[in-house]
Design a protein that fits this description.
Blueprint: H1 2-17, H2 22-46, E1 49-53, E2 60-62, H3 69-76, E3 86-91, E4 94-99, H4 100-104, E5 116-120
Parallel strand pairs: 1-5
Antiparallel strand pairs: 1-2, 3-4, 3-5
Helix pairs in contact: 1-2
Amino acid sequence: MKILITLSVSILIAVLTGCTTKSNARQQAREAFVSGQQQAMAQAQQKKSVMFIGSVQNPIVEWTEDLTLASGIVAADFRGRRDPRGFNLRRNGQTYTVTSKQLLQGEDFSLQPGDTIEIVP
């Protein structure tokens, strides 16, 4: 939510001041989005939490010892229009790919504090 507000404010300021081109406004919006993502990642790493990137209502989910990928997706409140194709789990500089098929067949994965899960549409 904070990211979206930051992004909207950046675009609104650019439009109201009239001192920028559309491409500059887009670039400023991209920079604001990336900054918001970086802030969220820093918060997730400071706390015992995991971060979800994608169509979710709650991008930061508090970590518990029994948190799995499936329960994390539920806690993040996935809001995509379609079922995701898969998930990229980033942990300690490594990326692991998990398909939706694996998850639906009961192959769930334990999450660790600081994990980042990107939902692949």
